[in-house]
Write a structure and sequence with these properties.
The protein is an alpha/beta fold. 51% of the residues lie in helices and 18% in strands. Strands 2-1-3-4-5 form a 5-stranded parallel sheet, sandwiched between helices.
Amino acid sequence: MNVFSTLKNMNILLIDDDEWIRDSMRVFFETEGCRLTSVETAEEALEMVHRQDFDLVICDYKLPGLSGLTFLKELRQVQAQALTILITAYKTDELVSEAKKIGVHAFIAKPFNSETIEASLSHLIARQNRAISNMI
């Protein structure tokens, strides 16, 4: 399965305060023909999710202002259906437990590269497809 054939039909939101990561991810996704909206802060992202639906949200944990985890809790109130990935260099058992309680679907550890992103997305979409198949 080519993960990007599925992602091409999805609206993707990236929240990361690192401009290099936002730009690199934008180029990575756009090269594959995917729609990616990227913002710097959780506050900007909250405004976006109140105006537009997203299928996939990729969010950094450490952000200025609201943390990524706080944003993802808020996101659940607005768009419970969105698949969510938390990017972090601070992956602890406590963080993983708290993130899973609010419904975070996957984690990407920093530092990462395009292969890491693709593998994580492939795993997440395959798991989502299995869940949908089991419901039918």
